Structure prediction request, 385 residues.
Amino acid sequence: MNNSFNHDTISTTENVTRPTRVIVDLNILRENFKKIKLHAAPAKVMIVLKANAYGHGLVRTAKLLQELEADYISVAVVEEGVLLRQSGITIPILVLGGIWGNQIPLFIKYNLAITASSIEKLKQINEYAGELNSKAKVHLKIDTGMERIGVHYYNSDKFIETAYKCENIIVEGIYSHFANADSTDLTHTKLQLERFNESLAYFDKHSIEHPVRHIANSGALLQMKETYFDMVRPGILFYGVYPSNDLPKTIHVAPALTWKSLVVYFKVIKPGHPVGYGLTWQSDENIRAVTIPVGYGDGYLRSMSGKAKVLLRGNVYPVIGTISMDQIIVNIGNDSAYNSDEVTLIGTDGNNSITSENLAEWAGTIPYEILTNINTRVPRIYLNE
Ligand SMILES: *Cc1c(COP(=O)(O)O)cnc(C)c1O
Prediction:
């Protein structure tokens, strides 16, 4: 195992901080968590921490959840789980992604719950656990209508039966995932829920106590109480962002992440002097412009070129020209700005705000992709430790 594997930030031996940084307000995350917990009760809460905790920093976010005595957390890949264990996280962790056989010993060594998504994988898990004289914790994955991983709901009886026959397996949970719960049209979500219930009928039929049942992501948590079962599984909502703007805001959360930088250069640009790669923009009058050390190499997506805006001295200004790998240029018109002035990429300055939803709209994507794309070379700073 490579111990230098680090999801949170690039690290050097020097104590320097890049002016371009992500600031995470831990108090906002604490509040969001409490609101979700209160709303979901008596169901337990599993917070999803995949993709560097949606950009918020995997290890620090997991430590916060441990401090808050979270019931459960989950990640996408086994390496994320190993890193958390090596960082002192002891609360239960489920790895949501599909597995390869040779990873199974790692799950067992680090006490990570495995997503079992076929009978064949159950048998592999059982065998590895037996060889290690150990028991493996699994959550059975049922495919109720997403066709990603999991045993189809119409084949699940045999799958569940096999799991309970494996003597080296502890069936800790059973779950499924919604494909369209962030839509206001709940037709497919209701169908998936029905199918999940069909699969779960196995336990009553065979008088077996059911393991922890979970299916509700943020969308379902916001709009369908009947999906909560024993545990809910929100990701984006915990970070304070709604999966879509059309959903009822039945839980009031606030975004915990801001993204800032500093002005590194000031100049006047004359008419007829194009700006940036591809010469896509030029002015027909003198303008003042500043350069900011952030670019698509940090996750400030190039597809936002021509649309993105930033905040500086409380005002909104457009990014001009094509977004480079490491730099952007901002048109401040006739206004003033100085080197080291603060620039807000996501967040609030005075009366103006820019949200991850704004960036998503400019880039033609969803806020999930904006947040998870903020590169690890951007340091994460935490407020309210
Ligand atoms: C990402 C993910 C979630 C969380 O989804 P949100 O929309 O962020 O709440 C829950 N379950 C699984 C299996 C996931 O992959």
In short: Residues 48, 50, 96, 177, 217-218, 233-237, 243 surround pyridoxal-5'-phosphate (CB under 6 Å). The radius of gyration is 24 Å.
